[in-house]
Every structure is written in C-alpha cells, then in structure tokens.
Design brief:
Elements (H helix, E strand, L loop, with lengths): L21 H7 L5 H5 L5 E3 L16 E12 L3 E7 L4 E7 L3 H6 L5 E6 L2 E2 L5 E4 L2 E4 L12 E3 L8 H14 L8 H7 L4 H9 L7 H5 L4 H25 L14 H9 L6 H14 L6 E6 L5 H14 L3 E5 L3 H16 L5 E4 L5 H13 L4 E4 L13 E6 L7 H7 L9 E6 L5 H5 L6 E5 L10 E6 L3 H13 L3 E5 L7 H18 L5 E4 L5 H12 L5 E4 L12 E6 L7 H8 L10 E6 L5 H12 L3 H12 L2 H4 L18 H17 L1 H12 L9
Parallel strand pairs: 4-7, 10-15, 10-16, 11-13, 11-14, 12-13, 14-15, 17-22, 18-20, 18-21, 19-20, 21-22
Antiparallel strand pairs: 1-9, 2-3, 2-5, 3-4, 5-8, 6-7
Helix pairs in contact: 6-8, 8-23, 8-24, 10-11, 23-24
The structure holds adenosine-5'-diphosphate and magnesium ion.
Magnesium ion binds next to helix 11.
Length: 689
C-alpha cells in the first residue's frame, strides 16, 4: 500500500514538541553529501506508468486506476467513496482524513489512485489510503518511469526525497572512474546508466529483477561497493607499512626456542611448524604484523602463541596474551608459565578478580619490564596497565573482542607499534576472509595433532534425560570425566545461573558415586580455579557448567559432553563446546539433548553438527543462517559494512572486485582511491584501522 503520510512508523511526538532539525534527521539515515543521496537506492517501486481497468484489478497487487467518484460517505472518523471507470467499481476508504482529501474525493471529481486493492465487505475491491491525484488532462502523459520509494526517516516525505535525489543525480559527476576497458571486460554497465536506471527504471522493467537485485545495474552497484571495500583495505594495509614496529629477532640465535621445543611432550605438527614459520617471518620485520592464526578447536594454537611470546622475549621485549574469560586466562597462565618458567622467563597473570595487592604487584612487574610474558583478560587494557617494552600483543579467541579492544592492546608506547597476533577457532568462510577480514594475513593450522579420535555426536530427546544420567554414571564409574552444559535461558545470566545450580543439585543427588562440580561466570576467581583444578586432576568427575567453558578449556581426560537444550545454541557455539572433548586418545561422545517438539529448522541445524566435525562446513552453514556478524567480532569490524552486496550471494563478484582492485591500484592508484573515498566518505571506519 502506498505510504501517504497518514500513518507514521515513528513514535508520535507530543503536541508542540519539535522534530530535530532536518539536517540531523537526514544524517541519521546516512544522507549528508550529494553522493549519499545518489547512493540512497529505492526500497521498492510503484508502477504509475500504467492505468489498470478496475475490472482487471487483483487483490494484493498494487496498481493504478483512474475514474470518477460516484459517491462519498463521511463519518466523523472515516471517509468512504466509490470510484467508477466504466469497467467496474472500486471502494476507497480513508480512516482519518484531511478536509483537502474530502474535497479531492467529492462526488463527480475525476481522480487517479495508486494503492493495493483488497477484498471488502460488500464484495467490491477496496483501496485503503491510496495515493490520490487528480486525473490526467487530455494532453498529459503518464510517467515514463517507475516511481521509486526510498527508505525515509521521521518527517521526511517521499516527494521531498525524490526531488532531492533527482537534483543530486544532476549535480554530481557520475562519470565512471573505473577504466573503460576493465568495465567492458567485466560486462558491467556504466555507473551513470546503472544509477539512473535504479532510481528511475523505465516503464516495462520487471519488478522481480529489481527486487532480486539481479539486473546488471544492481550488479554494477554491488561490484562498486565490493571494489571500494577492497581498495580501502589495501590502502589501510599500505598505510600500516609506514608504521614502525620492533623487528623481533632472537639475540641468542634461537637457543631458547630450541630448548623450549625439546621440553615439550610432543612434536609440533607440520601445520603448526608452517604457521610458526609464517608468524616468525612477520615478527622479524620492522612493520607491525597483523596476522590471524585460524585453527579448529584442539589444533594446538596455544603452543604457537607461546613460541611467538618467546621470540619477543628473546629479542628483549615483552609479550602480552589477552583471553576473553578468566578461566581461559588462568588456564593459559598455568600452562604457559609451566612451559616458560624452566627457561627462566617470568610470566604474570593480570585479571579483574585478583586481590588488590596481588594485582598491584603484577602491574608493577609489568611496568618495570620484570614480567616478560603477561597473561590476562580485558584487565590488560584497563587504565593503570603500562608495559615497559611491549613488542607483541596476542589475542586469543579474537572474535570475542571488539576492534577497539584489539587495538587497545597493541597501542604501544608511541614510538614502536607492537606486532599483533590473533588466534581464532572460528573458521572464516572464504568470502569473509576476502572482504571484511582482508586486512589480516591469515595462517591456518589445518591439521590436528596425531592420535585424536573423532567425537561421535548424538541427538537425544529430553525425554531420555534420566536414562542418559544413568549412562553417564556408569561411564564415570569406569574412570571417565564429563561436562554437562546447561541451557541458555533467554539472554538472562541470572536465569542461566539458576538453571545451572538446579541441574548441579539434581545430578549430585542422582549420582551419589560421582564427585560433581559446578562452574559459572559469577564464581570468585579462586573458586573457579579450585573447581577447574579439581576437574583437571580428575578428582571431580562431572562438571556442570554454563557456557563459560565454551572457549579454550583443555582437559584431555574429559570424554563426554552433554549439552542440554542444544537447539538454543548457535552452530558455531556448539562446535566450540564440543571442541572441549576429543582432546585425548580416547573415544569421546557429545550428546545433544533437545526439547520436544523440535522444529524442522532446529532439527536441520542440529543435524549439521551431528553430521560434521568440520569447522569450515559448520561455519559456512552458520553464515548462511545468521549472517556475518558472528564472525566479525563482538562489535563491528572496523571495516565499512556492506549495504548492497551480500557475502552469501555475491562470492563471484567479490572475487572479481578483488582482482579489479589489484589491477586498478597498479594502473592508477589516484583514481582508485578516489573511488573508495566516494563510496565511504564520512562513513565511520573508512580506511579501517
Ligand atoms: P586450541 O587450538 O583449541 O587452542 P590447544 O592449544 O589448547 O588447542 O591444544 C589442544 C591440546 O593439544 C593441548 O592439550 C595441547 O597441549 C595439545 N597439543 C598441541 N599441539 C600438539 C601436538 N603437536 N601434538 C600433540 N598434542 C598437542
Ligand atoms: Mg585455544
């Protein structure tokens, strides 16, 4: 139905309350420069290029009719009129109307109406709040182009926007910046053609092509957007090359590294060795590294991080490792300090829940440079933490942090910018790696340590819960350990916690032979440590947990995981959770307990997890289902978000844009960057960080 201003999607303002200035309201929907208007593309179109005979109207399909008002009935709250065009009768209804509308629709006037007809009481078709115009004069023509309907804001009308955008289309030079031969090779129309077409498609254009965004004009716009993103990323990368970082080369010829490697109870896998070589090569350069190490859960990323930290220490600098949860920071501290202590390297932990004196001592050691490797949570980027000589910042489970947090850790002392190494188990679909994350170099640990037995995953109805508990009791009696992950109850931590506590009591009662532990985010640090230690040492055999154990936790002897109400978790999250088991050489089981009835969609999602242990496949499905937000980190990526192109559908276009960006930058960097600037001008995050 045509929007005619009678209904407002915005909260009504009190009488006398003024709207914010127009300029502000426009800026709110991204309209500042002429280019913003040019790129403000219609949401949909109305076809006013044709008059449909009333007898041919179809309920639900918007159309334009012209005829004479044959009757009008007015009540205090509504106006009903009948319009005839000789082929049939149409009813028009306005609930709330202005006197001017009543006179437009008075008996005998000839009107042109645009709206969506629908069935009414009398059997006659009806339009509610159609757009009303006077009928065409004899020598007047219908519009030759479809009428655009733009995304609008409070108090911003369609006629105003249409006029403003038409003016912008005249005012800016729409001349193509993209070299002609490249454009032709890609088979794309010119930018000017495309924009004029999208704002004013000619009569006869099929609306479905426009809706599906498959016509060449849409393709050109999406391509330009992807191209601008690629150019911006390359630009920020070359800007980064101008910044100085400490070249981390070992002062001791790598003696410590050799000692470290031979002290490990295992040999690095080939994939770990390769990734470490890639990281080490970056660290040796005097420009800041920006590398993401991606490896499925359990692939052994921690040891690569430790090697990098060791390299910083060997070169006379400090290294910091930041993890998203206290449990994980604590675990890294225990593991890594055990590795490094014997080499005479001092590691300290900085966490939010440390006692004041303990924390003060740790921070002092950090500031004086006595602490060579510093491990912690977000506490590391809080005020009062200053490093004496930070050479390397490592961020574990990077997708759990926002851009500003990641950058805060590498802020450095102003002279030299530390290297940045990020670790993530969340596999990055190719399209994402090529777009939003293209500013990172990526290394992939694509091999698990030997001897791992794949986890078997089963779906089980909640009705079988008691039988499952009994089964777990038997496994525990045979010396196995298990996790029991409690469901998420609507985004509420308190409720989650209540559910976990209840389950804990219940399992304790049901399994008198087992030692049951409970861990959750609200426990004080020392208790968390005690609970985890007891589980690690095998004293506790069943650990009831909230999703605090989602990332990083490593207890190889735990071979069973129950996830209650698995249907409430995201796929990536389930994969992470399941990654807590299957870490040793014993067969492991993951039981996905689900509620009943299970929707078709949920069953399909759980089947993805059951049938695949391949993080990439799971991530691809997750991207399909949930869009890129999850992969980009808690808060935006620092790279301009795509408005027109879609990573799921435009993979091929993205590839073309990437190649085109390289070629264009080689041939004419000036005009290439002008293109990027035009697209992202004034938009936050342009040219990234
Ligand atoms: P993630 O990549 O999930 O962070 P971790 O670094 O926690 O994995 O490693 C998982 C487990 O595998 C740890 O117990 C670790 O000590 C062990 N591990 C790492 N590398 C190897 C290897 N090359 N051979 C055998 N075990 C390894
Ligand atoms: Mg890890």
């Amino acid at each position: 139905m045509a929007y005619n201003g009678s209904f407002s999607p915005f909260p009504l303002r009190k009488k006398g309350e003024k709207l914010p200035p127009l300029k502000e309201r426009l800026a709110k929907i991204g309209l500042v420069t002429d280019w913003d208007y040019v790129l403000h593309l219609p949401l949909r179109y109305e076809d006013e290029t044709r008059i449909t005979p009333i007898s041919e109207l179809v309920a639900g399909i918007p159309a334009q009719v012209e005829g004479e008002v044959t009757s009008q009935r007015v009540t205090p709250r509504s106006l009903t009129a009948t319009v005839s065009d000789g082929t049939g009768l149409l009813q028009v209804r306005l609930i709330h109307f202005y006197p001017s509308q009543a006179s437009q629709l008075k008996e005998g006037s000839r009107v042109r109406l645009y709206g969506e007809p629908r069935g009414s009481w009398g059997g006659m078709l009806e339009m509610v709040h159609p757009r009303i115009r006077r009928a065409l004069e004899r020598d007047e023509d219908l519009p030759k182009t479809l009428t655009p309907v733009y995304p609008a804001g409070e108090g911003i009308t369609q006629p105003w926007l249409r006029k403003r955008i038409s003016r912008a289309l005249l005012d800016v030079t729409l001349k193509d910046l993209l070299p002609e031969d490249m454009r032709k090779r890609l088979g794309l129309p010119t930018l000017e053609e495309s924009l004029r077409f999208l704002h004013h498609p000619p009569r006869g254009t099929t609306l479905s092509d426009l809706d599906m965004r498959t016509c060449p004009a849409w393709k050109r716009l999406k391509f330009d957007e992807l191209l601008a993103q690629q150019l911006a990323l390359r630009h920020s990368r070359s800007e980064r090359r101008k910044i100085a970082a400490p070249a981390l080369v070992p002062n001791d010829g790598g003696a410590l590294e050799g000692k470290f490697l031979s002290s490990l109870p295992f040999r690095l896998t080939r994939a770990q060795e390769r990734v470490w070589r890639e990281v080490a090569a970056d660290l040796g350069k005097p420009v800041p590294m920006n590398r993401l190490v991606q490896g499925d859960v359990g692939s052994g990323k921690t040891v690569v991080a430790a090697l990098a930290a060791l390299r910083a220490v060997e070169a006379g600098f400090q290294a910091a490792i930041m993890a998203p949860t206290e449990i994980l920071a604590e675990q890294h501290y225990i593991g890594i300090s055990r590795w490094l202590d014997s080499l005479g390297i001092r590691t300290v932990l900085v966490s939010g829940s440390q006692r004041a004196a303990e924390k003060r001592a740790a921070l002092e050691a950090v500031a004086k440079g006595e602490a060579q490797v510093v491990i912690g949570t977000h506490a590391l980027i809080q005020k009062g933490v200053s490093f004496q000589k930070l050479g390397l910042a490592i961020i574990d489970e990077q997708h759990r942090f926002g851009v500003s947090q990641r950058l805060a850790l590498r802020a450095g002392d102003g002279l030299l910018t530390p290297h940045l190494l990020m670790l993530s188990a969340t596999p990055i679909p190719r399209t994402l790696a090529m777009s939003y994350l293209a500013d990172f170099d990526v290394s992939v640990i694509d091999e698990l340590p030997p001897g791992r037995v794949p986890v078997s995953t089963k779906l089980l109805s909640i009705a079988k819960r008691d039988a499952l508990i009994a089964g777990i009791g038997r496994e525990i009696a045979r010396g196995r350990q298990a996790y029991w992950v409690c469901p998420l109850v609507e985004e509420s931590e308190e409720l989650d916690l209540a559910a976990a506590k209840e389950t804990f009591e219940e399992l304790k009662a049901a399994l008198p032979g087992a030692t049951v532990g409970l861990i959750h985010g609200e426990l004080p640090q020392e208790e968390k440590e005690a609970v985890m230690d007891s589980f690690k040492s095998g004293q506790t055999s069943l650990l009831v947990a909230t999703t605090v154990i989602e990332v990083g936790v490593d207890v190889p002897n735990a071979t069973i995981m129950v996830i209650e109400h698995a249907e409430r978790f995201g796929l990536a999250q389930l994969h992470q959770l399941r990654g807590r088991i299957g870490r040793g050489d014993q067969k492991s089981w993951c039981m996905l307990l689900h509620g009943e009835p299970l929707s078709e969609n949920s069953r399909e999602r759980l089947n993805v997890i059951r049938n695949s242990t391949d993080g990439f496949e799971i991530a691809r499905r997750d991207l399909e289902i949930r869009g890129p937000g999850e992969f980009l980190g808690a808060r935006q990526s620092g790279v301009p978000m795509l408005r027109f192109a879609s990573l799921e559908e435009d993979g091929k276009l993205l590839e073309e844009a990437r190649n085109a960006a390289d070629e264009w930058l080689r041939r004419d960097p000036g005009s290439a960057l002008k293109h990027a600037g035009r697209w992202f001008s004034g938009r936050e995050g342009f040219l990234g960080a």
